[in-house]
Amino acid sequence: MHGLLDSEFEVLEEPGGAQINVLQHSGYGVTHFEDPDNRRVLSWVLLDAEARRSFESIAQHELLEGIERGGYRLWDFSFTPPSLPGTHFDVRGHLDKESRSYFVFEVLELSQIPVSMPSKIGMYHPEFEQKVRSNGQTGTSKAEAANLLNVQNGFEAVQSASRQRIETEKTTVSFSKAFVVHRSPGKQRAGAGAKTDSEEPTEPSRDLSVEDSAVTGSLPAADWDSFDDQTDDAHLYLGRFKAFLDMVNELEVQHGVTVVRRDLRKLPELPRCKKHLLSTDGSHRHLAVIDLDYQGMCFTLLEVDTSDADKQLSTKLLKKQGEPLAEAQLFEVEKQLLKGSLSWPKALFDQYCGKDQHRWIPHPKSKHKGVLEPDSIDAWAARVYSWINVE
User: Fold this and answer.
1) Region (Disordered) spans which residues (predicted)?
2) Where are the domains of the chain?
């Protein structure tokens, strides 16, 4: 049976992989396509057999159970849920002890959702354009708070490839198996439409519609941004830090430096900034944080994934009295790093560590941008150690 999903998306499956093509007149906007977490949830619905059957059962129940009355189609919403073995539910509702049933008002979290997904997934959107910008700004933006916008009920939305995302209370989801949906290359448009550093971003409309788009629509289109994907997928990105982590291992083995903590963090999403995503495939850009101890002194190495070769950025080494950077300090470093278009925030490090207590450690020279040669690791580790060992 062909349903709504088949009219919106083309799914091409092959051994070990799948390609999802958004069809030309699909209602799935570019704004959602550019969000890697949104691509992951959509691909789960399209490719996981149980999830897809459950989604398509909504229309089937409506056709079987809906009735016509007074010019309206009436139906009590129902669907066939997937089995979801091992999934943890965090819900808010009412427990009726007499009937031994629980009426759910709100689903707060679904964690460890079982999935059956191919290892390689690509997604293509016909309206996506890869724009070349000098400062990381784009025409789309982070979801905005609902109290700053006027959502007009009953007004159709204009037809547009992009829909504004409206911030709202989120349902946290995580999958039992991490998988990444890579953005397949789209049309490229260099120069034209790119903002210069002196240009101010266009102020979006405050009046929006969350209704379906139509030719007769009168308001900019919007959707609620209601999912927070917390799937543990950091291990999928370790390969991009292989040379850096090999250098850290050299510090331990050859120079007696102790690694206290290793952390791989997704860079946060900021308004009118896309530097938190890799320009090559639209996946998350990560920051590696390595806390070190050498003769009782605390050091931290910071390394940013620049595998898309948009901009080369040296390794950052911090020397800090007492404890390493606190969580709030790390988050501020991440924000300033992105606001500076992937430049280390020197003034912030002066504040946190003191002047002359942080250093840029250049990467070894390489013939290929974004890739380091394996035989350069020893020299890189030696340069890091030379500053750690300074009295």
Assistant:
1) 184-213
2) 4-48+84-191+202-229, 234-388
